[in-house]
């Protein structure tokens, strides 16, 4: 792999220096000039980017294609103000908008397709929004809004809106086909076609992908396997249009969790027997779980299924000119999701094998491999959570909007209705393995006892705790929101914007109460001979009862925003915006406080931003200082033992976002860049831990979010056909948790990428390399476990190791 990375760097350098002055006309630039760009996200009507009083980043289909992001999260790394953790794999990643801390996922932003949510709440337990969305060639462009008017145009989105806008057909029949492979066994095909069935009237577009790969981290099985298809049909008439569309996603992805590393001064290095760049606990040898249940039957799970959503989306959009400058637009969508989620979650750090046995009260102990029965003597062992979650989710949403245009602006009024439901079933067990990146299941027994003795074994086929946590619960939301937005142009240069949203939202749900049991009197055996009294693995099995606990919660809130934009001239503009919004309590906050919902409050947000924008044909820059204050943030990380953090805090943040693009030397050299400087801190964060001890984090830096991070990507159009680029992503120092102590620092890191492309007529050849220097870059520690006292072992989740992809794309 290192030789391949060195070759990629060398080839890029040769292209840079040997042909740098051979160009006459560059191939198409990666960046579309912002001066004439029109945006729709967070605005009542399409308007030029320079006239929009919002902090918004845009990416055309061509830009997305040439960046060739390995995941949706990797693409969003290019947006200032978004601190993105990409180490989870292709899906299941985390995004923190403008320094707002959370347990992860997309809690304070809404991910949309064509202006409606991928799913109404993007931060349900184990249901990150990117689980249900994939970037492919059917995406026309991305618009990413931070703060600002997000709370007026969507629910639970004070941090921003991420809107993927899909392609539609035109009178010209066009298509794109792509074939891609990689150093990690990737085979991917993308296809998108669109055109007119009836000229000027009836248009279609259909696109999708299928992909299979082994994963950059070595799992021993197909880490990612599946695809997506998306299609739409649009009929245009004199006074408007009607569009219907359908999406099917059936994809399976491995989710990667923290691995052991060792602390070496201010750096983290590989743990003995574990490759930090390519290793994972999610390995084939431990992929099968099959355990009896206290209520009868067996529970089986296959780790190779990973995160496996089956998503069906059916939607429609209608626009009609009512006359007299009035128009109406209605968007509606129904989404159904059936997802199996299986992942390996470390239950703390590796332990010395002798110490692990002694902590279980064993004076005599013996480890053996489950696969062969061979007795082994490992230095370290690892307890892992084998977490299985099933979720059935659906969402019906309708957005009805009326618009009135007048000489000086427009008024938009709308009613937003969304009903959604998520039912989930958890069945978690713990297993015991070697502390290596190709782990093997271990059995642990007391050799001083006979196999028929009570407590002889601490495991059952490598399982230490069978079904130690069951959860059967449901949450439903009914959202009923009215909104009003006004744009008013005082002069050709000065404009005002104001918006208000009234939310009357209802949430309810239930959980099934549980009890504990064992299999001692079940008549089952652990090995065909001995009963379950010989093992402790079943001693605390969870059993679902027949009693339910119900809860109900309602929201009655107003969000609003005020802004002004002054266009100094065609290329320069300044703006200011204040916004007040909220985020409803997240699912885990309800569940943890089901008997005391008075403790649970919506997160209230106040944000102020000012901005300067300069857009020209050759140079763009936006500089946006911002301030935010939040109240009632809930912290709901689920720990390895199934309990939750369940703390509440306030935060403040002062920062500045910078985003720019430049074409230099007659378009030979291009560079895109973005960066964020901020100081997110806790405020009034004191209280008592579950064990009765007290804490005081007031004034500490918020966890997992850097104060400084940036991305820069220079490119050279070497000839009309040849293009080469490098990219640099810097992610600053962070803290694993709220304590801000030296033993939970996550070091800063810099990740480099590089690539090249060659355009031969309508065919494009490309090679892209990620993390080409094989950097150990840590995005998060282990939020489910604390650091190991008195040890240099740290649990953390690094970015993927060096990898390269090659692709051929045909435009027709």
UniProtKB/TrEMBL annotation:
Subcellular compartments: Cell outer membrane
Protein origin, superkingdom: Bacteria
Keyword annotations from UniProtKB, A to Z: Cell outer membrane, Ion transport, Iron, Iron transport, Membrane, Receptor, Signal, TonB box, Transmembrane, Transmembrane beta strand, Transport
UniProt xrefs under Gene3D superfamilies: TonB-dependent receptor, beta-barrel domain, TonB-dependent receptor, plug domain
GO cellular component: cell outer membrane
InterPro entries reported for this sequence: Beta-barrel_TonB, Beta-barrel_TonB_sf, Plug_dom, Plug_dom_sf, TonB-dep_rcpt-like
Bilayer topology annotation: Multi-pass membrane protein
Coiled-coil annotated spans: none
PROSITE patterns per record: TONB_DEPENDENT_REC_3
Name of the molecule in the record: TonB-dependent receptor
């Amino acid at each position: 792999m290192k030789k391949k990375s060195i070759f990629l760097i060398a080839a890029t350098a040769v292209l840079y220096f040997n042909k740098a002055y051979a160009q006459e006309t560059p191939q198409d630039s990666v960046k579309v000039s912002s001066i004439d760009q029109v945006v729709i996200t967070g605005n009542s009507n399409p308007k030029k980017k320079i006239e929009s009083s919002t902090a918004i980043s845009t990416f055309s289909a061509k830009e997305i294609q040439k960046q060739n992001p390995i995941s949706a999260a990797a693409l969003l790394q290019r947006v200032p103000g978004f601190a993105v953790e990409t180490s989870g794999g292709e899906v299941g990643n985390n995004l923190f908008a403008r320094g707002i801390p959370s347990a992860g996922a997309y809690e304070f932003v809404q991910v949309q397709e064509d202006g409606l949510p991928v799913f109404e709440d993007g931060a349900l337990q184990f249901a990150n929004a990117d689980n249900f969305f994939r970037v492919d060639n059917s995406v026309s462009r991305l618009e990413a809004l931070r703060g600002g008017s997000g709370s007026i145009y969507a629910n639970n989105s004070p941090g921003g809106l991420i809107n993927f806008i899909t392609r539609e057909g035109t009178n010209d029949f066009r298509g794109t086909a792509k074939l891609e492979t990689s150093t990690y066994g990737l085979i991917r095909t993308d296809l998108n076609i669109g055109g007119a069935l009836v000229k000027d009237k009836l248009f279609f577009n259909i696109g999708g992908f299928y992909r299979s790969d082994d994963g950059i981290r070595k799992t021993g099985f197909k880490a990612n396997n599946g695809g997506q298809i998306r299609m739409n049909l649009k009929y245009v008439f004199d006074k408007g249009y009607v569009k219907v569309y359908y999406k099917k996603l059936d994809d399976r992805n491995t989710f990667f969790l923290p691995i052991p590393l060792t602390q070496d001064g201010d750096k983290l290095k590989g743990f003995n027997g574990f490759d930090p760049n390519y290793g994972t606990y999610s390995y084939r040898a431990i992929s099968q779980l099959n355990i009896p249940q206290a209520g009868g039957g067996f529970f089986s799970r296959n780790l190779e299924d990973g995160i496996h959503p089956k998503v069906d989306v059916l939607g429609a959009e209608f626009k009609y000119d009512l006359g007299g400058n009035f128009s109406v637009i209605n968007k509606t969508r129904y989404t159904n999701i059936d997802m199996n989620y299986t992942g390996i979650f470390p239950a703390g750090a590796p332990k010395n094998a002798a110490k692990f046995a002694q902590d279980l009260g064993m004076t005599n102990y013996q480890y053996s491999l489950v696969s062969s029965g061979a007795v082994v003597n490992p230095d370290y062992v690892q307890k892992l959570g084998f977490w299985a979650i099933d979720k059935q989710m659906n969402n019906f949403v309708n957005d009805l909007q009326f618009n009135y245009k007048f000489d000086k602006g427009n008024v938009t009024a709308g009613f937003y209705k969304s009903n959604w439901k998520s039912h989930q079933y958890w069945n978690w067990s713990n297993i015991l393995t070697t502390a290596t990146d190709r782990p093997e299941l271990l059995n642990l027994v007391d050799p001083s006892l006979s196999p028929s003795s009570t407590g002889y074994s601490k495991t059952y086929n490598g399982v230490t705790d069978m079904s130690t946590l069951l959860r059967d619960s449901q949450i439903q939301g009914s959202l009923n929101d009215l909104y009003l937005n006004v744009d008013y142009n005082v002069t050709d240069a000065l404009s005002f914007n104001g918006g208000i949203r009234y939310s009357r939202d209802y949430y309810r749900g239930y959980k099934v109460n549980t009890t504990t049991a064992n299999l001692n009197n079940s008549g089952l055996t652990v090995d065909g001979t001995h009963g379950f009294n010989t093992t402790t693995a079943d001693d605390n099995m969870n059993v679902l009862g027949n009693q339910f606990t119900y809860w109900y919660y309602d929201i009655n809130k107003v969000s609003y925003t005020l802004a002004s934009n002054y266009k100094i001239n065609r290329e320069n503009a300044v703006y200011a915006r204040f916004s007040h919004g909220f985020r409803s309590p997240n699912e885990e906050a309800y569940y943890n406080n089901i008997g005391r919902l008075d403790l649970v409050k919506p997160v209230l947000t106040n944000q102020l931003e000012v901005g300067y924008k300069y857009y020209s044909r050759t140079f763009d820059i936006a500089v946006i200082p911002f301030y935010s204050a939040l109240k009632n943030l809930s912290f709901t990380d689920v720990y390895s033992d199934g309990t939750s953090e369940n703390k509440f805090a306030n935060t403040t943040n002062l920062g500045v976002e910078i985003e720019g693009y430049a074409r230099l030397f007659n378009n030979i050299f291009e560079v895109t860049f973005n960066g964020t400087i901020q100081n997110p801190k806790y405020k009034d964060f004191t209280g008592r831990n579950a064990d009765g001890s007290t804490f005081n984090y007031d004034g500490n830096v918020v966890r997992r979010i850097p104060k400084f991070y940036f991305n820069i990507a220079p490119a050279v159009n070497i000839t009309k056909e040849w293009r080469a680029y490098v990219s640099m992503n810097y992610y600053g120092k962070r803290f694993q948790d709220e304590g801000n102590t030296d033993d939970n620092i996550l070091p800063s890191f810099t990740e480099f990428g590089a690539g090249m492309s060659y355009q031969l007529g309508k065919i494009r050849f490309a090679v892209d390399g990620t993390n080409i220097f094989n950097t150990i870059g840590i995005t998060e520690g282990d939020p489910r476990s604390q650091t190991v006292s008195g040890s240099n072992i740290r649990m953390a989740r690094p970015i993927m190791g060096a990898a390269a992809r090659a692709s051929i794309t045909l435009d027709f």
